[in-house]
Amino acid sequence: MQRGAAVGSAIMGVVTAALLGVVVVRLAEAERGDPARCGRGLVPVEARCCAEGQTAANGHCQGAPASCPPGFHVTDGNNGCALDARRVAFEGGALTPNNDWQTEGLNVPHAAKVEPFVLDAAEVTGERWQHCIRAGACREITTEEPGLPVTNVDAKEAEKFCRFEGGRLPTSEEWLFAAMGAEGRRFPWGATGLVCRRAVFGVEHGTCAKGGGLEIAGSRADGATPEGIVDLSGNAAEWTTEKDGRAVARGGSYESTSASELTSWSVESGAARAAHVGFRCAFSKEKLVPPESVLPKQ
Question: What is the pTM of this model?
Answer without folding.
Answer: 0.83
